[in-house]
Design a protein that fits this description.
71 residues; alpha+beta; 1 helix
């Protein structure tokens, strides 16, 4: 791909991403207060798959959602 064509393609991709981000309402993302979180599976720091249910203790679990500063 030529240099000018690559620059144009990068600009178009950037504009598409910016316009898509502008149409997302953050208030509609994620679970609502009091709503049950769906069970999910992620790998821990050792690479072992963990589910939300597997982290429950005798008193339940605290699940924290952290919104990244670069959103």
């Amino acid at each position: 791909m030529s240099r000018p064509l690559a620059s144009i393609a990068a600009l178009i991709c950037s504009l598409v991403l910016i316009s898509a981000a502008a149409t997302i309402d953050p208030q509609t993302l994620g679970p609502k207060v009091g709503e049950r979180a769906p069970d999910f599976s992620l790998r821990d720091q050792q690479g072992t798959p963990r589910t939300l249910r597997s982290t429950f203790g005798p008193k339940g679990v605290v699940l924290v959602f952290f919104r990244s500063a670069d959103w």
